[in-house]
Write a structure and sequence with these properties.
There is one protein chain. By secondary structure, this protein is α/β, with parallel strands linked by helices. The protein contains 11 helices and 9 strands. It folds into 2 domains: 205 residues, Spore Coat Polysaccharide Biosynthesis Protein SpsA, Chain A (Alpha-Beta Complex); 51 residues, no CATH class. Strands 1, 2, 3, 4, 5, 6, 7, 8 and 9 form a 9-stranded mixed sheet that branches.
Length: 321
């Protein structure tokens, strides 16, 4: 499949008033020849998709395979995709069964060494993929490299970059307790490991990223870099905001399946009850954030019951650091 490394000058001119990255400014370039496959699942993302597409195309790598799977958008997204079609490896617009289905459809077209999907409302930072590929040289045992993110609010305000801990191994204890092995946006995963895991679970609508990356983390090391690699947009229409019930249910499924996958004699198997408590408290906080007071109270009661049960049995409770 074709791969291209366009320059700022060869891409279509930006819309009026758009300046800076990735409109009028380019990022660094590299001769790293590793093939990177990026799948963009999208549906009715016309507000953000052009900026998102450009942030992938201008990563400055010579061997990026960019695949766009649109779910049959009717808002003008397809017009923008067609505008950038000469620099897109493969694209299609047709109804699908949701984001997970779109990701797997794109994955089936991928031929790269490394893989990730990139949502149509997020923006890779300049040089992000170069930094992540370089990290695989530093951490050759990594099955994935995760990136921190900067949050973009609906008013366009970007949270300032704060003091961040240094790059490090993503601790398996933390991953098991939280049901999260590191952020997926901006990351890269080894393609052979992703395909061996079967891609994402098509039954997940929110936490397919955590489910897949947890499978990888149980198979081997994953690392998280110090510097942010992506602008992660917060807006009312995103699935993680709208589908709170599904998000909570999927998080609990990840925790149960992860501990079930551990051998009986694994030294971290004992964390299972603590992970359930952490999940209940996480669900409570999500419901509080969405002003769902009765649901928040339900999860509060469940967490307290789980805590009482462990304390009665004399078992220690551990928390996410």
């Amino acid at each position: 499949m074709k791969t291209l490394s366009p320059s700022l000058e060869t891409l279509p001119p930006p819309p009026a008033g758009k300046t800076g990255w990735p409109w009028t400014e380019a990022g660094p370039s590299s001769e790293n020849s590793a093939r990177v496959s990026i799948v963009m699942p999208c549906y009715n993302a016309v507000t953000y998709i052009e900026e998102s597409i450009r942030s992938v195309l201008l990563q400055g790598l010579p061997n990026v395979e960019f695949i766009v799977i649109d779910g049959g958008s009717s808002d003008g997204s397809v017009d923008i995709i067609e505008k950038y079609a000469p620099w897109i490896t493969y694209w299609i617009s047709e109804p699908d069964k949701g984001q997970s289905d779109a990701i797997n459809k794109g994955l089936a077209k991928c031929t790269g060494d490394y893989f990730n999907w990139h949502n149509g409302d997020d923006v890779l930072l300049p040089g992000s993929l170069i930094e992540t590929l370089t990290a695989f040289e530093q951490y050759p045992d990594a099955l994935y490299i995760s990136r921190r993110r900067l949050y973009v609010h609906p008013d366009g305000r970007v949270d300032p970059k704060s003091d961040l801990p240094p790059s490090c191994l993503y601790d398996l204890r933390t991953a098991l307790l939280s049901g999260c092995p590191g952020p997926q946006p901006g990351s890269l995963m080894r393609m052979d490991q992703v395909k061996a895991a079967g891609g994402v679970d098509i039954n997940f609508v929110c936490c397919m990223d955590e489910e897949l990356m947890m499978k990888l983390r149980l198979q081997g090391p994953g690392y998280i870099l110090q510097n942010p690699g992506i602008l992660f947009r917060i807006h009312p229409e995103q699935q993680s905001t709208l589908l709170i019930k599904e998000r909570i249910a999927e998080k609990n499924l990840i925790i149960e399946s992860s501990f079930n996958a551990l051998p009986a004699d694994h030294p971290l198997k004992y964390l299972h009850p603590s992970a359930r408590i952490c999940a209940a408290q996480h669900a409570m906080r999500l419901c509080q954030k969405q002003q769902k007071k009765m649901n928040a109270f339900k999860w509060y009661l469940k967490s307290q019951w789980l805590i009482w049960r462990e304390q009665k049995a004399g078992r220690p409770i551990e928390w996410v650091d």
